[in-house]
Amino acid sequence: MQQPSRLLLVLLFCLAASSALASGGDEGAATYIVYLNPALKPSPYATHLHWHHAHLDALSVDPESHLLYSYTTAAPSAFAARLLPSHVTELRGHPAVASVHEDVLHPLHTTRSPSFLHLPPYSAPAPSADGGSSDVIVGVLDTGVWPESPSFADAGLGPVPSRWRGSCETNATDFPSSMCNRKLIGARGFFRGFGAGGRNGSSHGTTELSSPRDHDGHGTHTASTAAGAVVADASLLGYAHGTARGMAPGARVAAYKVCWRQGCFSSDILAGMEQAIEDGVDVLSLSLGGGSYPLSRDPIAVGALAATRRGIVVACSAGNSGPAPSSLVNTAPWIITVGAGTLDRNFPAYAKLGNGETHAGMSLYSGDGLGDDKFPLVYNKGIRPGSNASKLCMSGTLDASAVKGKVVLCDRGGNSRVEKGQVVKLAGGVGMVLANTAQSGEEVVADSHLLPAVAVGDKSGDAIRAYVESDAGAEVALSFAGTAVDVHPAPVVAAFSSRGPNRQVAQLLKPDVIGPGVNILAGWTGSVGPTGLTIDERRPAFNILSGTSMSCPHISGLAAFVKAAHPDWSPSAIKSALMTTAYTVDNTGSPLLDAAGANATATATPWAFGSGHVDPVKALSPGLVYDTSIDDYVAFLCTVGGASPRQVQAITGAPNATCQRKLSSPGDLNYPSFSVVFGLRKSRTTVKYHRELTNVGAAGSVYAAKVTGPPSIVVSVKPARLVFKKVGDKLRYTVAFKSTAEGGPMDAAFGWLTWSSGEQDVRSPISYTWGM
């Protein structure tokens, strides 16, 4: 039970938000983000805040009670406020208003990694070559941080960098100032959008305090993955035992709580990004996002562009909506869009059936097992005959009299995997077999279930379903084999990882890369158990989770790793290095596979893995990089459509961005990958793109172009040989793609363009589509 003082703080916070937002009679109001054109700010207004107040005053709206945020950095000249529909209509007609968009709730995308990625050992203090530079600061926008986690210990770290302008926002009972140290150097919370979002019957009430403390676990997990300290004897209840460390263990961490368990509001995300930019972070990590919006309407894209302008690398998760095509989010070209793959580690468990079949699966169950005995196995034992809900083991659907003392077969989907185990346990079941369906294929994710449980793939699931439906005396024994390493093949693209093609800009290939995102061990909150279920009383210091939420901080941390070695590199140069050195073969030497394919034997494509799986050591020496300027990004925005010049000015903060410069095509952006769109059902169509490479390798380097791909597409590169006389030289080339065959809207093909010096390979994936 919570202490009275904590409950009082919660009530005061909720009452303050409610009273502030209710003043002025705003029934029917909602939160909107209003983008103003900075070029049109009248000179009498000393600050943007004064200008924002004036707009609200003109609407007879009290700024003191209705203005949530006034942005100046992440979204130049924008503000977030509670407004009525009539206010929005009036604002949209104002000449200084570029656009108005309603606040949106974004979902979260939810220690073997260092060795799997071949990262060098870390010892503090360490030279920058091993990613240990303590001058690099990683900002994590998430559910906050659990500061007591051993992943945020500061042993061996020197003073906080003098350029750091952030702070540790404290709360007397929940987050004392002593919680921040030389590792966790900043912790802030942003709640106004979330509080306002609880209006109009869509309550987002919570018992969390208005502090940076993480009561969900997601933020602690992502922050420790990116830059957690070295922790010996780490494990989840004995699983994955070893030494845990983040990708950049010497880097500093700044946590910005912009998310709650229910999600993250755009207005809070923008406020967190603005604060992080002003605080002086070097890398931003966002394992969140929802919906596919035009770039001019995407608050994460807007904030990320402002960060990029300040030299900050921004990495975001691609989403967990795979394997559906065009399911990507966070696709702006200035963002590193991260998909997920597997590690070479799993947690084997077995379901031995009464017919003699044994099906291999995975589990993180850590309690007393069921021994070697077989128990009755049942399926679809619901309280409502004919309902498929009991197949999914949805809450309240199981017939306790039919499942008590038995193992229940549950189909994956509909509700969370761990919730299914809770449903079975509460109904009296003694165990669970969690079976994939065709949607999840052979991808099996391990969970720390509340009762003995084994998760199996679709093929095994079909066999077990057939067995239990044909044998009234079906039975099963469950066994657990701990942790296995050096698993083959690995990596495999996760089935849940969101895919291309990019629905917003077809000429931009996304995702950019994949990183480890399945069964990842990292730090955890002390507020909830590893399942996140209220009845789970276990409190481990580490937890194992899966999702692009987990792969994103791997890339954020590796960006810090590269930044430490090359502090003068731009965000686009760092992204290019990670992309062009990525690999596309697994640890058997075969092409990367896709877990969503039948029996996980389908070969993955760049729509699933982008440029490939990140290789951080090679990224330190990429040879050449595609360096993209802010002016290039502005020209890209002006080219893609959907944004007027005044909207471009509003989201870039560039008053002189008149869109006089445009690219010949969005695909002409100086990007490390290619997405070629031919005319629908037209043969002999030619598409030309231009690129510029910068030499970051040795002086006198000579590179030759090599193209691979389908024979029906003829590719020419001019010049086909590039001679870089000195470091820093920039050379341009043109590549022409000619389709000699017709293609339909569902057709796709892939290839590669590689610049090779004999010592360095600079690889770029190419996707081909027709009439998207």
TrEMBL record:
InterPro entries per record: PA_dom_sf, PA_domain, Peptidase_S8/S53_dom, Peptidase_S8/S53_dom_sf, Peptidase_S8_Ser-AS, Peptidase_S8_subtilisin-rel, Peptidases_S8_3, S8pro/Inhibitor_I9
GO molecular function, one term: serine-type endopeptidase activity
Xref: Gene3D superfamilies: 2.60.40.2310, 3.50.30.30, Peptidase S8 propeptide/proteinase inhibitor I9, Peptidase S8/S53 domain
Domain Subtilisin-like protease fibronectin type-III: 668-767
Active site: D142, H218, S549
A Pfam family per the record: Inhibitor_I9
Signal peptide start-end: 1-22
CDD domains given in the database record: PA_subtilisin_like, Peptidases_S8_3
Region (Disordered), start-end ranges: 197-223
SUPFAM superfamilies: PA domain, Subtilisin-like
Sequence ranges assigned to domain PA in this UniProt record: 376-464
UniProt keyword list: Glycoprotein, Hydrolase, Protease, Serine protease, Signal
UniProt biased composition (Polar residues): 201-210
GO biological process: proteolysis
Residues in Peptidase S8/S53 domain copies: 134-586
Protein family: Belongs to the peptidase S8 family.
Protein name as catalogued: Subtilisin-like protease
Organism encoding this protein: Triticum urartu (Red wild einkorn)
Record gene name: LOC125509333
